[in-house]
Amino acid sequence: RLADFKKHSGKRFTQDQFKADEALQDEVAQWHFQDIDKAIDALGDAAKGYDRDGLRSIGHLGGKGGMKKFVKSGGKHNPADELGTSLKDYYDKFSKP
To answer: What is the pTM of this model?
Structure first.
């Protein structure tokens, strides 16, 4: 995602500079979630009925492509990370009831 941000923004920085700069970290995080929001919006009606915060969390864990597959499959696309946390686990944790 840092490479995506650099390409989008034209900014250049090292990993160490990023780690040391809280304002830059906040800027990247804001861009990251806005980028995920654009992907959610692009799903149109397919995303209706899903909690936006839940979809954001899936986009964060599984990438925008993983989030799109999750929605389009009705939740059947549900891989887990190396710790066993699935996309649905993240969705459930971060969705508002």
So the answer is: 0.86
